[in-house]
Amino acid sequence: MPPTPPLSRRRFNATLAGGLAALALRGRAAPAAGPDLVAGIEKVTLRRGRDGSGPTWFHPRACLVPGPSGPTVFMTLQTIGGSDYFGPLHAMTSPDLGRTWTEPVPVPPLGRVPAADGAEEGVCDVVPEWHAPTGTVLALGHNVFYRGPKFSADQPPRWPVYSVWRDGRWGPRRKLEWADPRGAYIYTNNCGQRTVLPNGDVLLAFTFGATKTQPRSVCSAICRFDGETLAVKQTGPAIPHDKGRGLLEPSLTFFKNRHYLTLRAEDERGYVCASDDGLNWSPKQAWAWDDGEPLAMSTTQQHWLPHSDALWLVYTRKDPSNVNVTRWRSPLWMAQVDPATLRLRRATERVVLPLVGDGVKDPNRVAIMGNFHPLNVTPHESWVTVGEWQPKNGINGDLLLARIRWTRPNGALLAP
Q1: How many domains, the chain?
Q2: Of 62, 315, 349, 393, whose CA is between 20 and 30 Å from 302?
Q3: CA separation for the pair 382, 281 (Å, rounded)
Q4: Radius of gyration of the chain (CA)
Q5: 2 in a domain, yes or no?
């Protein structure tokens, strides 16, 4: 089950750089025809659950761990049994870029523990990321409380929790401390993409609120990470939003010397900001097409997929095919972002994973896919992983992977 021991940082970067250089030379000798970067998208079923033959896996998120014979894919995931009701965290690995996988096994530090008054404290929304400077996988999620077989309606204060994988062993469960009164009730980076800065610091974003009813704001945070402990060093100004619960599930990326932030909201919009330093952000603007028409999004996350030639966004939106699907959470789409206008180029939109069923006349049988994660795997291939579920039709869903193949090599694997 444990991934292969990692290469040294210098050897891994030298090997990867050499391979990318060779691929780039081949690309110049025989350039891809046409402007489209997407050569094709293949849907792969990793584990079946839609037919009831196995558990319904959710929150599948992966990273690459370097090794002497090539990278190992390291994925965390957990079962789902109801709305926001998740089983203990598990992990599985693939030594051959997703062709075969180990069986999921529990991650003991991020399981459930007893809480006050008979409740249980669990962990969800975990994102594992390889941290090259320390040779570790940092698995960061947040705590959640269950009472009986369901999500507790009366959630006490919540915060980020994490565990570190190093050389096949998990470290203890830790809390990411942030002694700021603005996050007195909740602060979290749940489901959020983050980046590693050149000095090894981790840049992430918090959604936070001082009380249960206060609409949440977002700020970014620079954190020190020494391979064991994650600690907040500096935070930026708040980005407020007064609709619904505010701004949720922030995700960051870095593209062509600029930082980008995408934000889930509850006013049928998603939002985007940009920053030169990762702390101070441009005023948020609603995601829109290049002609200015806003996208209709219903309280669902968006995530980044950076290619060295273009920045892509993966998202859900309202469409005539899914008008009656819960929160329009199927299909998954992707489109290029115009870095100058922060709008999506409509002509580049592609379906990443299609809607299965009838989203107009029989929406309850459409498995929804609102919690997903992109990953650059090789210069020629990127993934989006997702767990389906059917909240109004017996929960069951498949664990899916979309293989996105590029027409030109993706040098973004060398980005910080």
Answers
A1: 1
A2: 393
A3: 28
A4: 20
A5: no
CA distance 215 to 374: 28
**156-172 tens-digit pLDDT:** 999 999 999 999 999 99
CA dist 46 and 398 (Å) reads 8
Tokens describing residue 99: 């062709």
Give the CA distances from residue 67 to residues 3, 35, 73, 198, 415, in Å, rounded to whole numbers and listed in that order: 8, 34, 10, 22, 19
Q: Please report whether residue 372 resides in a domain.
A: yes
306 band by pLDDT with thresholds 50, 70 and 90? very high
**For residue 356, which of 3, 50, 31, 13 has the smallest C-alpha distance?**
50
Q: What are the DSSP calls for 107-150, one per residue?
A: -GGGS-EE-GGG-EEEEEEEEEEEETTTTEEEEEEEEEEE-SSS
Residue 332: beta bridge partners? Answer: 353
Question: What confidence score (pLDDT) does residue 153 get?
Answer: 85
Let me know if residue 1 belongs to a domain. no
Tens-digit pLDDT profile for residues 351-406: 999 999 999 999 999 999 999 999 999 999 999 999 999 999 988 999 999 999 99
Q: By C-alpha distance, which of 239, 229, 230 is closest to 279?
A: 239
Number of other residues whose CB lies within 10 A of the CB of residue 261 = 25
| CB crowding 304-313: b at 16 or more within 10 Å, else e | bbbbbbbbbb
263 φ, ψ (degrees, to nearest 5): -135, 130
Element (H, E) at 186: strand 186-188
Looking at residue 362, which CATH number applies to its domain? 2.120.10.10
The boundaries of the domain holding residue 158 are 9-414
- Within-domain flag for 3: no
**Alpha-carbon gap, residue 47 to 313, rounded angstroms:** 26
pLDDT-based confidence at residue 8 (cuts at 50, 70, 90): very low
**Is 16's pLDDT higher than 90?**
no
The pTM of this model reads: 0.91
Residue 366, amino acid: V
pLDDT at position 202, please?
98
Q: What's the token pair of residue 158?
A: 């919540």
Q: What is each CA distance from 11 to 94, 116, 166, 275, 379, in whole angstroms?
A: 21, 49, 18, 32, 18
Question: Whose CA is closest to 46, among 22, 65, 62, 34?
Answer: 62
Q: What is the mean pLDDT of residues 60-70?
A: 96
Cβ atoms < 10 Å from Cβ of 96:
10
